[in-house]
Amino acid sequence: MKLWTGRFSKEIAKETNDFNSSISFDQRMYKEDITGSMAHATMLAAQGIISNEDKDQILNGLQEILDDIESGKLEIDPNAEDIHTFVEQTLTERIGDAGKRLHTARSRNDQVAVDIRLTLRNEVEALVPQLTELVEVLCKKAEEYSDAVMPGYTHMQRAQPIVFGHHLLAYAEMLLRDIDRLNDAKARMNYCPLGSGALAGTTYDIDREMTAKLLGFDGVCMNSLDGVSDRDFCVELASALSLVMVHLSRFSEEIILWCSWEFKFIELDDAFSTGSSIMPQKKNPDIAELVRGKSGRVFGDLMTLLTVLKGIPLAYNKDMQEDKEAIFDAIDTVKMCLTAFIPMIDTMTVLKDNMRNAAAKGFINATDCADFLVGKGLPFRDAYKATGELVALCIKTNQTLETLPIEEYKKVCDLFDDGVYTAINLEKCVNDRTCLGGPSPENVKNRAKEIKEIIKK
Torsions phi, psi of 274, nearest 5? Predict the structure, then answer.
């Protein structure tokens, strides 16, 4: 039976029921729905709106339903309109008239609003530890490879020498911001809409602050229209999740490049790679490729939410039922990606020699060569020009700055001396980059330690 029978003289058409039903995706909120109802019943009794006897029957009945669902004894009816209907009707079947009093001073509009806030709050609390685990893995790897020299790139061209640990910590910094954004989104969603009713509150003498406190909210939604129609928190969470996927996708692209034969900076563990059905030599980075692909799915969920909300007037409209599939899919996709991505990074093999060999090519110490002349008193632009001429000479004669004779250096600028070879040594280049945020091994180890302290808090 529908909760809204009485006004209608006909049974709802099957096609309407199937189209209208949300049980297939909102049933995941069963625990939050029951928790919210328990708090609501407790408040009603405290305010004298229902009797303590009815309250006790409702609380015991709801706890039994929760226990039975979680044990598998009670299956959620796929033909129910939604999870709220299923719980209330099951409760009434079990305890009788007391169950019918549960919905006093409440609408499904504020009920579903509190359910989704509770659900998303719980989801954030589960997702943050996953991101934290990935940050911990990156810090561990960064410390291990704090002195592994590799080329840093701009425009996908070798640019300047860095260390692999510094590169990994760049992603750790991104993920720290992601964690902050998720926690910020959680803080803004942590206000209770119960008591907003359908849109205009209620004439019952309810205690909204009590309900909010029982459910662990920081306060109540202060406008009943906004309380039932606000889904900003869904959009904000989807936006934060989209940025998580941007960062995982960028990282995945680098993983894909690094494990190719053209780079061969890393090798993925066999347990986190796949092969080809026809080419026996292949070892494919499928996890990274799938993460890169699934980013578009999460972006699509964000656009779905924005599009659903952009044109609907206050207060509640059925369009808003579309919020759940989108935000739940975004959450589930990110969690699934992290579940596979974390051990893939943790088990990868870093090929330090290949990184060092790549760093030795491409003249990535040219800036350090120019800085050597600056140290001799030459203006930077003149030093830049002189070094550019040396690079052009090296390319023409198939040499590197390390192998070019000092006589050739002096032909371009007489300020050069044998000290230039020390200045352009790749290890010295990275060791000297000790400015705050720079890639020196000592900086990398210190920052990895700082990040680990940050995530402990």
Answer: -135, 170
Strands 219-220 and 191-192: parallel
Give CA–CA dist 246/178, Å, rounded.
10
Supply the pLDDT for residue 9. Answer: 53
Secondary structure E strands in 246-303: 266-267
Q: Measured between alpha carbons, how far is 449 from 40 in angstroms, rounded to an integer?
A: 46
**Taking Cα atoms as reference points, which of 128, 313, 300, 330 lies closest to residue 233?**
330
- Position 14 scores a pLDDT of 73
Tokens of 288: 């990274």
- Of residues 370, 374, 418, the one with CA closest to residue 391: 370
| CB neighbours of residue 95 within 10 Å | 19
- Output the DSSP codes for 209-237: HHHHHHTT-SEE-S-HHHHHH--HHHHHH
The pLDDT value recorded for residue 362 is: 85
Looking at residue 18, its pLDDT comes to 67
**How far apart are the C-alpha atoms of 361 and 298, rounded to whole Å?**
39
| pLDDT under 70: residue ranges of the chain | 1-10, 12-13, 15, 17-18
Over residues 275-298, the pLDDT tens digits come to 877 887 888 999 999 999 999 999
Contact of 176 with 169, CB cutoff 8 Å: no
Alpha-carbon distance 428 to 421, whole Å? Answer: 10
Which DSSP string do the residues of 433-444 spell out, in sequence order? --STT---HHHH
Q: Is 155 a catalytic residue?
A: yes
* pLDDT value, residue 62: 98
d(CA 69, CA 76): 7
Q: Which residues, in sequence order, are bridge partners of residue 219?
A: 191
- Which of 24, 51, 260, 276 is the catalytic position? 276
Q: Is 196 a catalytic residue?
A: no
> Is there a contact between 285 and 268 (Cβ–Cβ < 8 Å)?
yes
C-alpha distance from residue 322 to each of 196, 278, 318, 388, 440 (Å)? 21, 43, 8, 59, 50
Q: Which of 9, 71, 155, 277 is catalytic?
A: 155
pLDDT at position 275 is 81
* Per-residue pLDDT at 44: 98
Q: Which of 43, 24, 39, 40 is nearest to 86 (CA)?
A: 24
Query: In residues, how long is the chain?
Result: 457
Contacts of 47 (CB under 8 A, 6+ apart): 204, 205, 206, 207
Q: Which DSSP letter does residue 11 get?
A: P
Angle between helices 30-46 and 108-144 in degrees, nearest 10: 130
Helix, strand, coil share of the chain (percent; to 5): 65, 5, 30
- The values of phi and psi at residue 369, to 5°, are -65, -45
Question: CB under 8 Å to 276, separation ≥6 — which residues?
Answer: 282, 284
